[in-house]
Amino acid sequence: MQPFNVLWLQGGSCGGCTMAALDNGTSGWFAELARFGIDLLWHPSLSEATADEVVEIFDRIAAGALRLDALVLEGSVLRGPNGTGRFNMLGGTGRSMLHWVNALAPYANYVVAAGSCAAFGGVPMAGTNPTDASGLQYAGAEAGGALGAGFRSRAGLPVINIAGCAPHPGWISETLAALALGGFDGEALDDFGRPRFYADHLAHHGCARNEYYEFKASAEELSQQGCMMEHLGCKATQAVGDCNQRGWNGNGSCTSGGMACIACTSPGFESAQNFLETAKLGGIPVGLPLDMPKAWFVALAALSKSATPKRVRANATSDHVIVPPRTDSGRRK
Question: What region holds the Cytochrome-c3 hydrogenase C-terminal domain (predicted)?
Answer without folding.
Answer: 201-274
